């Protein structure tokens, strides 16, 4: 059953979609907007792990709106004021808010958008397809979704579709067959692992954390404090933990108008290979961790006896269950010496092996024939608008993919509000003239093409 024609349908309701929804709500003209989210309520995955006093890596000014509209009701500062905590927060002098507070801010904003009646939770989108064609151009899209509770399939129609479905947990090949093993958790599910670890009757557990980014290191640090009788080891393939480049000149370069989408600008130093950027950790986390390791050295001497160990240059080549138990053994090769070794049986493994962003491709599978690329891949222009073949899609219609770049793009909140402004400008830029302007029609020349 098809309902009204929506001006904009947003797929997914994470922070990216929330920022866009606020921007659409703040436009002077009323719009018919729908947001489809598969979860039963709003939740931010960055806040799912209850890490001790963990703070945002980004500033309170890098919220959902401030850099786009500092006068908005949805700023972090206004949230503090509206919830009666502005004075107390000010006394803390914290530029980087505690994650628990930022999570509450996001929930607070989400509840205001919910009140507009724009959101349908529990709806998983399966794909979109072109619908009506006027003068040979697609001007409406059909979005197919499943009501998860009732199992009913539903369709909605829209002029413009924004895909904001985020990323999906990725496991590296030696561990991919352990996806549903009860001892192995991707870092995205650490909040599920933690109660299990803490309620385990064995006092001294062997736990491995795999990875070398902020997420891996924060989880490692947290386990070292809450499971202090256990042996916790961090394996990473790099020769050392590396520091995130937070120099303000780079941040300025990312925020300055450019022909590239925001995600790619931070990687410009990577000599064109955007995917080759090594995982990094914020300096404050590195300092804390180094101090922890040093205190251990002073107390315990022999490094191999330490309760928490950081093992660099290690590649996990194989994993199997330890005979007669559900514990997991790892084959580990030292990259610097080539020597292979077998690990102790691990009671738990937390794999911070990153995320992949391929969901938008699945959702757009039925649009392949109209995509403007030789190999059927999805490309966007600098306003995140999908490049379709010339003359195939009407100017007032289109699809935008806001979080599909297969790269570690740093902290999304550092450019979230700016990216929202870019998308917003592009969504309605052709409404006034009724024709595509030079920017889009000349996509190959004026606008950089970016493969997701
Ligand atoms: C532990 C952790 C800490 C972090 N800390 C920071 C930080 O301090 N600062 C910072 O800037 N960034 C941080 N990040 C990164 C930040 O969380 C993410 O970049 C941000 O969540 C991205 O938002 P998003 O809306 O693009 O994607 P997501 O948060 O992944 O949201 C996507 C939404 O789409 C929904 N969805 C997916 N597929 C479908 C479908 N087919 N149908 C319907 N709905 C669908 C999902 O359920 C989800 O709700 C952190 C991330 C993690 C994991």
If you had to describe this structure to a student in words, what would you say it looks like?
The chain is of the alpha/beta class. It folds into two domains: 261 residues, FAD/NAD(P)-binding domain (3-Layer(bba) Sandwich), CATH 3.50.50; 141 residues, FAD/NAD(P)-binding domain, CATH 3.50.50. Helix content is 27%, strand content 21%. Strands 1, 2, 3, 4, 7, 8 and 20 form a seven-stranded mixed β-sheet that branches. A five-stranded parallel β-sheet has the order 10-17-11-12-13, covered by helices on one side. Strands 14-15-16 form a three-stranded antiparallel β-sheet, with no helix packed on it. The relative contact order is 0.16. About 4% of the residues have low confidence. Flavin-adenine dinucleotide binds next to helix 1 and strand 4. The site of flavin-adenine dinucleotide (FAD) has 31 residues, from helix 1 and strand 4.
